[in-house]
Every structure is written in structure tokens, then in C-alpha cells.
Fold this sequence. Notes:
Distance between the termini of chain B: 5 Å
Oligomer: heterodimer
Number of strands of chain A: 21
Shape of chain B: globular
Strand content of chain B: 15-25%
Distance between the termini of chain A: 51 Å
CATH class of the largest domain in chain A: Alpha Beta
Largest sheet of chain B: 5 strands, mixed
CATH superfamily of chain B: STAS domain
CATH superfamily of the largest domain in chain A: Histidine kinase-like ATPase, C-terminal domain
Helix content of chain B: 25-40%
Strand content of chain A: 15-25%
CATH class of chain B: Alpha Beta
Amino acid sequence: MNLDQALHTFFDEARDMLHVMEEALMRAENVESTEDDIHALFRAAHTIKGSAGLFGLDAIVAFTHVTESVLDRVRNQELPLDGELPGLLLSCCDQISLLVEAAARNEALSEAEHINNEQIVLMLEQYLEDGLSAHTAQTESELAPTSMESDKASDDAQNALNDCWHISIRFGIDTFRSGMDPLSFIRYLGLLGQLDHVELLSTALPEGAAMDPESCYLGFEIRLRANTDKAMIENVFEFVRDDCTLRILPPHSKLGEFARHMQSLPEDVSLLGEILVRCGALTRNELTQALALQENDAQASAAKTKPPLGEILVNQGVLSQPVLNTALEKQKQTQDKRNQELKLIKVHADKLDHLINLVGELVIAGASAQLIGQRAADPLLNEATSTVTKLVEQIRDGALRLRMVQIGETFNRFQRVVRDIARELGKDVTLKVSGAETELDKSLVEKISDPLLHLVRNAMDHGIESTEVRAAHDKPDTATVYLNAYHDSGSIVIEVSDDGGGINRARVFSKAVEKGLVAADAVLSDHEILNLIMEPGFSTAAQITNLSGRGVGMDVVKRNIEQLRGSIELNSEEGIGTTVRIRLPLTLAIIDGFLMQVGQASYVVPLDLVEECVELPRDAINQHHSYLPLRGTVLPLLRLRELFELEQSSAQRENVVVVRWGQVRAGLVVDALLGELQTVIKPLGMLFSQLRGVSGSTILGSGEVGLILDVPALVDLATVQEIRQTEHASGRRITAKMAS
Amino acid sequence: MTPIPGSNDQAVLLDDALSIYQVAQLKAALCARLETTDTLLLDLSTVTEFDGAGLQLLVFLQQEIARRQGTLKLTGASANVTEALSLCGLSKGFNSLDVLPDTPTDAQPWVEDEPAYAPTTPLEA
């Protein structure tokens, strides 16, 4: 692997780690954090520091080191993770993130960032210093008696006299190839304390030609005299952890442990025993005892079909049952977690995109094969193609699902955002998330998070009132921002709502007049007034904060959403709150479409948006109504022939396709209904970017081009046409002569 | 690797580096040498780079030669080699791997026979 790639991996990893840290800290701040969280925190900081050190990113190492030291004290329960500490550690996360990003861009930190860096380090050091004297004294006094007691309690004869750590390591076969040198680990180990004895094990060395000099066959038995803990020793071997066998026995381990230790190693037990004696880990007498113990074990296990270790321990009264149960439970949990991690593989997004492109081509090719089959009227061929089509459909769905991710992760990121903004604004706000398991396309998730951020900020800044105002209105002190997501007829709906003051229509209107967006005497519907907020250059915040209110918010959000073929809708009740509803198509690539024909041109609408199809009654054709009474409701009609200015046809019958977008229905008048079609969406070129009513194109089985209709825009158009029928409508005509 | 002239094909001067980058080549060359002789004298006095792979090669050679009932002798270990061997507890003669920097009478009989020996221009093995 070249260094650049490795560095990229480091940056990716570091970002993941920081994310993990942030989540753990958020939990620490809100509720009681678990031990796992604290360990995860420490591990993350430790890994970032270690890897950064490998690449010589000294600034990251220096800063992370201080953070890690504080976390180490938290981990050792010398320091409680409460009060101001989680907040401080969160800013540490931000700082590390800054440093990592700066390193990724290969830049140094700015002056201000530097000062901030030093300030945080100073604050961290307080946690290191003030505790050190008091806390260590305390822990030492606490520890001393217990260790004495435990010494007394345990049977002296059972414990080895050895007062050193015993470390057995067998290096993995690829150690040299991964650029590691076993000797350097042992040298490093020597820094922890004094290497009492090092024994090189060469029993694994093959003979003659079988020995590959670039493979590593080395193993070591090491006696280390050091005042340290197991984790420190394990850390020495961190970089080879995954592919080496490492066994560590603390000083004065039980003879039984030595016996098991010997058994767990690949070498012959008697040989190992000799080595242990030679190392000084065991006396000869102890070795005999240990081997006898092991013999007993072996006999017992043969007789009782191997009772689990836990059982033996309980039987011997070493462990009580409840303690054992919790230990086993914990073990199982970690294992489950690991298994879960193993089930995930990281795939480069490009590969997925490529796969989906190919599936798209497959869909088109399949459609054309089916068409030929139908023309040939060969039943066998038809059957074969229909099987293929079914499979292609499944492959398409599967491929698309690969890119589907749950929105929960994006939502959870807002916990931090809400916390920070709430502090900044001095408001008491919580975030409630629902529908986190709703899935949507990965590419959409990335594009939606910025608009969502805007909306959440807006809700907190403009929507939610100050604590005094809330108290005056008998509202709970703590305001709430809700994020919600759900699927609805082929689209995903994301709602951002708050229980704030709602939108003041009168203020919006007067502001719009002031900004020259509407005439002072214009009569607007409630809906239209609310939509003014999304006009460019509109801002109602009485006071412009650095969060929002610069008039670049909502119109940008609206534009972004529309670029994703989605729509945005505002609901607001004064004094109760505001809800912003974003509606997005589920996927950007392939959809189930409904194919219809007008004259010679083919059009496709997403099948999920089609409610029903009815024949246009003859009198409606003759009278040229722009609406259709449908089971007691009025359905606005949109004649595609007129809309796209197609030539008049001689078709006797016309059909209405009823489509729904959100709560609004409209009928599209077409000549013929051609049925379902798997549709690969091909974007239109730059030239057509201003075109309304058409959102993309697709290639039909016959090789012709079909246009995909932009249902939201058409529904909008139909309703507007319906409402303002009196107005001259020619200006809104859409020219789409490029059709077919 | 440089064969030392006039030393009965047994003495070899390993120069510069004895590390993962050289072990494959050296193993092949030294094993080929072992086809003709059971005794090997390695001069490690000029080895500047010595890592775990180099150490492993020495241990391997020692075992191979022991199997043939031959002798492997090391002489003039450089500071790097001495440090690594003592780190791994090998300098005391583990498995009779003889490191004899301090006992010239035993270690260098061939040097006395052949005073012309000098670290000559290194030939690549």
C-alpha cells in the first residue's frame, strides 16, 4: 500500500472515530454513560493518536495525547465524566477534527485555531493536575488494603513465586511482510520496565527449503519486571495484535493459569514448561504442580465430557454464580457486537454506482428483448423473456437497496447541532427523532443534510421563543424540535417541526411588501403568504444572528430540494408551532414507471404516484372542461397535448391518469395507456435545465426516447390553472418541442 | 555476501545489511554453500543493519547445520548484531549458536592461517 492511500485510510478512520467519540459524549452529557462508552472514548483517542504518530502528524499527536490522558483517568475511575467535562471533551473532538482536516488539506492551523488549541490544552491540563495529587493518594490508600487482603485470602501455595509479568508472543507469519520487526516490539517493551529474561522460540522454523526467510516464525517468552498493567503491555503489540498470539500473565499468577497458558500455546507443553523454568517464570517444583493440575483437568474433562471453565470456577468457589453470569453475558455481548461488525463490508461508492448503471442498461436491454419476443409471438420466447424480466426486476431492487441507508444516522448528528445552537441562543431545546429507520438513497442523504441543517437552525432561531415568552404562554420550559421521516406513496417525507411561536402572517406579509416581493394591496391565500418565506431575499428575524436570518436560508433550501425532484411545504399555526415537510423521490436512478402515449410521443410517470386511470367521458371531450367530476370531487385536468403543443390526433378516446403528489390530485389527459415499465432515469442535458414539467428521460424497449413527467410541477400547474382560470394562461405554456 | 578468499569456502563475510531485504537472497546463497560443506563461519563485523528477519536467518542456519552435525560460528559481531542477540537472550549461546567476539583463539583460526584476509571489495552473492 502506498503511503498516500494509507494516509487516506487514516483520515477516514479518524473521522469515524471522532463520530464515535461524539456520540459517546452526547450520551454522557444527557444520561449516565456506560462503561463501554468510556472505553470506546479512550480507544478512539488512543487509536487516533497512535495512527497519527505513524504518519508523523505531530500536531494531532500532541493534542490527542492530552485528551487521551484525561480519558485515561476517566477510564480508571479517577475522574468522573460529568459536569463540564463532557462539554470540554466535545470541544476536544472538534479540535481534533480541525487538526485532522487541516492535515488532510496539508495546511497548518490558523492563528485563531492555534490559540483555541492551547486554551483547550490548558483546560485539559487542569483535569490532569488538580486530580493527580489528591486522587492518586486516595486511590493508593484505597488499593493498598484490598490488595493485602486479597493476598491473604488467596492460597499462597497456589500462586507462583514469580513477581514478573510473563508474556508469550508468537508473531504472525506475515509480520515481516507488513513491515514490522519483532525486535523493535521487544525493545519497546523494554521501555516499560526491565526485561528480566527473553527467550527466543524457534521451534516453528521449518527445515531446509520449506523455510521462507521472509516469513516470520519467531516467538518469544518474556519476563518483564515492570509496574504496569495488562493493557499497557497489550498496547505495545498493538500493531501486530490482529495476527499474533499474545498471552500475558500478571505477576503471581495461579499455577493453574500457567497450566492453561501452556496449553493455549502452539508448542509442546513439556518443552514450554522447560522454557518457563529457564525463564524463571516458574520453579521446577511449581512446574510439576502445574502439570499435575493440568493432568487432573484433562482427566476430569474426559470423564465429564469437559465441563465449561465457568462451571469449574463456580464449583471450586472461585466465582459466585451471579458474577459469572454477568461476565458471560458481557462476553456474549461483545461477541455479538463483533459478529455484527463482521457482517458489514465497506464498498466504494463508485462501484455501487457502476453496478446500478449496469443494472439500468440491463433493464433497457431486457425491455427491448421482451418487445421483440412479443412481436415474434413465440410463446416459448415470451416465457423466457418474462422470466428474465422478473429476475431483472429483483436484481434492480436488490441493487438499489444496496444504496439505501437509514436516515437515523443523519438525524442523530443533529443532536449535537441542537445542543450547540441551544447553548449559543440560550434556549432550552431538545431534539426528538422518529422514523429513524426510514431508508433512502445514500446520495439523497448526503444532499439532504445541508437543507435539514438550515431548517433545524431556522426552527431554533426563529421558531422557538425565548424562555420568558414560553413561560408567559404556559408552554413547557424546554422547547422541542422534532425530526420525523416516513414513506408515502413512492416518496420519502421528512418533517422538521417545532413547538415554537409559529409564523406570524401579518409580519411576513408586511415584510414581503417592504422588500418589494408583493404589492401592498395584493390578496394572497394563507398558503401563498407562507410560501413567501421561501422567496429569495426574505428574512423576518427582527435581529440577525450569526446562525440564520441572512435571507439566504429558505430559498436555498427550496432550490436544493427541487433539484432533487422533491418539494417543500410549510404548515404553521401561530402560537403552536411550525412544520416543514420535505417530500423526496425514493431513488434517483431507476423507478417503476407508467407508460402512456399522446400522439406519437411516449411519456412516463412514476407508477407510485398513479392513483387510477379512467376514460375521459365523451361530453368532457366535447365541452373541453378543465376539470372532471370524479366520484363527487373535482379533479383538475391537464391536457398533455395542449401543454406540450402536440399536433391534434384523430384518436376517438382519451384517458385520464389520476396522479397524486402529497395531498393534491390532478388528471393527466392522454391518448393511450401502455402500462407498467421499468424506467431508468437518464438526466436531461444542461440545455433543458430550465424546462418545467419534464424531469428526465428514459429509453424505451423499442429504442425510442420517453420523457419522464415531473409530477409535482404538473400537479402544481394544474391546481394553479384551476384556481386562476380567469387569468390568461398562455404565458405558462410549456414548449417542449424536443419531445421524441 | 562476500566469500572470504582462501578460507576453504567456509568463511563468509556478511556486509552492510542483514535484514528483511536481503534474507531471501542470502538464504539461497548460504543454503547452496551448505550443500558442499557442513561448517560455516560468518563474519558479522560489518553488519550495519540487523533485524528480526536477519536474526531468524541466523537461527535457521544454526538449526540446519546442527542437523548435519556441522558447526556454525559467528565472529566479529558488529554492535547492532550484539545488541539484538543479547536482547533475545542469544548471546549466552542459546542452542549452541556461538557468538564469540571475545575469544579470538577459538573463533579465528582461519584468520591466522590466512592473514591476507581483509574486507575486500564486496561481491554480490
